[in-house]
Amino acid sequence: MTPGILALIVLALTVIGYFLGRQRAVAKAAQQNERLHSLPGYYGQSVALFTAVPAFLLMAAWLFLQPIVIESQIAGQIPDSVVEKAGARSLVMADVRRIADGLDLVITKGGVSEDELDRMRADLTDVRGRLANVGIALGSDVSPAVFEAAKSYRDIGKTGSLLRNILVILAAVGFGAWTWSRITPQMRARNTSEIFIRTLLLGSSLVAILTTLGIVLSLLFETIHFFRMYPASEFFFSTVWNPQFRGGSTLGILPLLWGTFYVSFVALALAVPIGLMIAIYLAEYSGSTLRSFAKPAIEILAGIPTIVYGLFALITVGPLLRDWIAEPFGLGNSSSSVITAGLVMGIMLIPFVSSLSDDIINAVPQSMRDGSYGLGATQSETIKRVIMPAALPGIVGAVLLAASRAIGETMIVVMGAGASARLGLNPFDAMTTVTVKIVSQLTGDTEFASPETLVAFALGLTLFVFTLGLNILALYIVRKYREQYE
Q1: Is the pLDDT of residue 59 over 70?
Q2: Is-contact 321 428, C-beta < 8 A?
Q3: What's 112's DSSP letter?
Q4: Strand pairing partners for 241?
Q5: Is 34 left (phi over 0), alpha (psi -120 to 50) or beta?
Q6: Residues 10, 1: Cα–Cα separation, whole Å
């Protein structure tokens, strides 16, 4: 039974529990000739919640812990000689999981019994043929020990899944029946339901915090592993980025950081002034007819996929800048450049600045405008001295959002700026960013046993720290000017 089917069974039991709880509350009230403390629906909700919540919590915990427990058991069965031959234990475990999945297909689709599978263990050639028939490729160097580990992995997984299904259904039925049996007219079902809902809302509010914590910890642990294999001083202060997966790599982050901030600066230099001017015009000068058309039209830019922007940079903007500016003035001869990616990214960021700033400017109370006009200020003076300072915290947030979007962009940089890690001031040179190199380092060999692969986590953590610094700076600016106008 798959987890999806098990979840549907629990949901069905939850619905049944709701109606049974509601029916029992009404019947008990009629039998004892008493008024219910809560509405009948709350009694049904209590039974439904006690049916669903423990069962789903148990299923989630089981799905998370079962692979960890199984792999820890199977990893101990694999001889060290097999691990040394493969290069890493994680690579052997990847083969074990792949073969275990193939054995399930052989049994279900290939019509092979468990006894026949046991007889096939000694002849791996027959096993390879059976796996190939169901679309699983088995390398010629797979040892009998790996095959035995795969069979144990499959057997333990089947047993664990069966036990999970039984315990989850028992938890749903048991807690639901226990709550159903406790229903009386005096039961404070509404309080129970509200406590569950309050806890659910609290858990939902913690999702963002826990997700951020998980991201930071996952990056931190792998980054520590990377710095055990590669000197931190060379990573942070070297000006050369030259990864070689066969050894002898030079992994300096400075060229990548320079490219990231250079491209982002060009993009923001275009998006922020244009976006703010659009927001001011739409909020203060335009009529309702023009505003109702222009704002949705501008926001369409935010919905265009970044790969389309990348193609636009590669095919149109890059050759145009090269033929009209770079080559005639001797600044370069490549269509991939910082200014190509920056301009196209700036076009993409305009809606982020204009739309949010427009909403923020419109949120400034009309009384502030009226007071300014009453003192004799013109419309432009009111915008400059009253509206913009009052809306500054929100505008800073809009610019910060655009900056974060620019720093994290990948496809436009790949297709518009190239992949050259270099330090330079010429905006018509090809450069690259941190996000592009994170993708390139994790493409292909995903075994986290070499510094050339683990460097992606160090790059990600460094980028996270810089983004956090931007947030702190923005908060400082917001608080400083907010105190002035409060």
Answers
A1: yes
A2: yes
A3: -
A4: 251
A5: beta
A6: 13
Residues 6+ apart with CB under 8 A from 428: 321, 322, 325, 326, 331, 332, 334, 337, 338, 339
Q: Per residue in 184-224, pLDDT tens?
A: 888 888 888 888 888 888 888 888 888 888 888 888 988 99
Q: Name the phi and psi angles at 250, rounded to 5.
A: -120, 110
| Beta carbons of 107 and 117 less than 8 angstroms apart | yes
Read off the tokens for 427: 């905006």
Q: Is residue 193 a contact partner of residue 43, using CB atoms and an 8 Å limit?
A: no
**How confident is the model over 240-297, as pLDDT tens digits?**
898 876 667 888 999 999 999 999 999 999 999 999 999 999 998 988 888 888 888 8
Q: Is 422 left (phi over 0), alpha (psi -120 to 50) or beta?
A: beta
Residue 254 in tokens: 């400075």
3-state secondary structure of 166: helix
DSSP H helices in 387-450:
388-407, 411-416, 434-441
3-state secondary structure of 242: strand
CB-based burial label for 435 (10 Å; 0-12, 13-18, 19+) = buried
From CA 430, how far away is CA 424, in angstroms rounded? 10
Phi first, then psi: give them for residue 238, nearest 5 degrees. Answer: -75, 145
CB burial of 392-402 (b: ≥16 within 10 Å; e: otherwise) equals: bbbbbbbbbeb
- Ordered structural domains, the chain, with CATH: 3-187 (no CATH), 241-485 (1.10.3720.10)
